[in-house]
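FAQ

Q: What does a record look like?
A: Structure on top, sequence underneath. For example:
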């Protein structure tokens, strides 16, 4: 496991502090994350722990969550996920929304985002 960069730590701390300040529990964050995904991604991507996506070419988001290191997901959701598929819109989420989305995806996969591995970032030394 690699040590997160300063930017990643600040991002996660800011999102968690915001959720804490709002009095949101992990269950509330997860519920909020599901609602966000239903509104923005559910037309094409599968959002549940099992089952196919409505659009066969769009992977279920649980698979995306399991495929990529958590820091890449945080950055991708915050900056707008890129896609080779021209019909996929580039949607950006706030730090609070990213934390809620990851909490939801963690809840359906059984892998808490806080325990997920991070990518090795060029120039950083792993622990």
């Amino acid at each position: 496991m690699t040590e997160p960069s300063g930017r990643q730590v600040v991002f996660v701390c800011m999102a968690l502090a915001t959720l804490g300040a709002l009095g949101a529990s992990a269950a509330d964050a997860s519920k909020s994350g599901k609602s966000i995904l239903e509104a923005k991604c559910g037309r094409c991507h599968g959002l549940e722990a099992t089952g196919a996506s409505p659009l066969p070419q769009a992977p279920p988001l649980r698979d995306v969550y399991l495929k990529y290191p958590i820091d890449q997901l945080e950055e991708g959701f915050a900056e707008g996920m890129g896609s080779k598929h021209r019909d996929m819109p580039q949607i950006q989420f706030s730090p609070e929304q990213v934390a809620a989305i990851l909490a939801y995806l963690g809840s359906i996969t059984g892998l808490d985002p806080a325990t997920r591995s991070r990518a090795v970032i060029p120039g950083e030394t792993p622990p």
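Q: Is there anything notable about this one?
A: Confidence is low (pLDDT under 50) at residues 16-23.
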